[in-house]
């Protein structure tokens, strides 16, 4: 082998090795880790999740609004943290007080404004994209708008293609594949597999309580649909321990007990 060919081979090997070293593992990036480390923030979010009535959930959100500026996060993170909290309130309101659609609508409108503000202040692209997708999924939950459901699918597909390293993109992709019909590119097998990948990351990185709920509820639903009753019930009970008001989780538990 001549010197030129040896040099070319060495360069190719170097490029392959460095690409492998710097490649980011799927789901390994979590921009919201600082929020997970904040026990007070997590407790207030858990207070919204706790099934103690809508008034208590709204009160916890108001305390969070008062506290958020004292946490000294980047301005974009403060906005996105409040946007996510608004979405949780809207979900809870929809499930425990469906007749109070005005509450869910008001909090989702506030969530969208906070999301826009956070993006304008420099939020990472994938963090903003996945919250936009989540917003569309909650709007779909509230009013059943087909356009919102389609927008969710499109946003998640784009985000997963561009940012597979983002932990929350992985969760939303898992949810998208698990719940979308086959004609829209859904695949329960793939969705369940992605949730299983996400569960493995629980041992490797800090994960917020609301993300644990997403993982456990996704695994419960996936195993339920595949008639794996024992695993479905195991994960459904883990999910219910975090959030008691989820209608799908309650349906799974009622069916299996």
Characterization of this structure:
The protein is mainly alpha-helical and 257 residues long. The chain starts with a helix and ends with a helix. It has a domain at 33-123. 77% of the residues lie in helices and 0% in strands. It is globular and about 45 Å long. The chain is built from 13 helices and no strands. α4 (54-68) packs antiparallel against α5 (75-96), α8 (146-162) packs across α9 (167-179) and α12 (229-242) packs across α13 (247-256). This is Tetratricopeptide repeat protein. It comes from Bullifex porci.
- Mean pLDDT rating: 85
User: Which overall shape is indicated by the principal axes computed on the Cα atoms?
Assistant: globular
The proportion of residues in beta strands is: under 5%
Question: Could you describe the largest sheet, including whether it forms a barrel?
Answer: none
Protein name: Tetratricopeptide repeat protein
Organism: Bullifex porci
């Amino acid at each position: 082998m001549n010197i030129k060919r040896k040099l070319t081979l060495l360069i190719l090997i170097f490029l392959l090795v460095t690409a492998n070293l710097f490649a980011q593992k799927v789901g390994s990036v979590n921009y919201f880790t600082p929020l997970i480390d904040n026990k007070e923030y997590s407790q207030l979010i858990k207070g919204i999740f706790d099934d103690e009535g809508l008034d208590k959930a709204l009160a916890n959100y108001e305390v969070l609004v008062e506290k958020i500026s004292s946490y000294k996060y980047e301005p974009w993170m403060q906005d996105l943290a409040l946007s996510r909290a608004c979405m949780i309130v809207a979900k809870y309101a929809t499930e425990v007080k469906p007749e109070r659609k005005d509450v869910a609508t008001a909090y989702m409108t506030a969530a969208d404004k906070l999301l826009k503000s956070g993006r304008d202040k420099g939020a990472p692209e994938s963090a903003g994209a996945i919250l936009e997708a989540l917003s569309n999924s909650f709007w779909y939950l509230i009013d059943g708008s087909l356009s919102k459901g389609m927008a969710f699918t499109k946003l998640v597909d784009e985000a997963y293609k561009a940012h597979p390293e983002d932990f929350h993109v992985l969760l939303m992709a898992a949810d998208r594949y698990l719940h979308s019909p086959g004609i829209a590119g859904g695949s329960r097998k793939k969705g369940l597999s992605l949730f299983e990948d996400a569960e493995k990351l629980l041992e490797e990185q800090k994960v917020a309580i609301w993300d644990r709920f997403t993982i456990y509820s996704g695994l419960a639903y996936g195993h339920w649909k595949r008639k794996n009753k024992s695993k479905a019930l195991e994960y459904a009970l883990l999910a219910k321990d975090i959030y008691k008001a989820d209608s799908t989780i309650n349906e799974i538990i009622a069916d299996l007990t």
